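[step 3/7] fold_predict: job queued, chain A
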Amino acid sequence: MHVRFSNRAQADLENIRDYLEPRSPQGLERVLSAIFTTIGQLESFPFLGRAGQVEGTFEITVPRTTFFVVYTLPDQAYIDIEGVIHTSLKYPIET
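[step 4/7] structure written:
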């Protein structure tokens, strides 16, 4: 399976970088490594996560961090990363 990142997920990763980089470059490296390792595992095991809070999504906790990844499986070839959410944020966002 191939991983694709939504605009929201890309923005989430940029926000994580913008927040952590000036505070702890090593912490940023550790968090991003954990996020991408978790996403990499989904390529081989797409059902590793649990059913998401939003219908049609899945969620997987990123070990040793305060983040979880929201993703969808639109077809047998792709995993779409929809967001990388900090556990302190309200999710799902009510509109």
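[step 5/7] annotate
The chain is about 35% helix and 25% strand.
Residues 2-86 form a domain with the YaeB-like fold fold (CATH 3.30.2310.20).
exit 0
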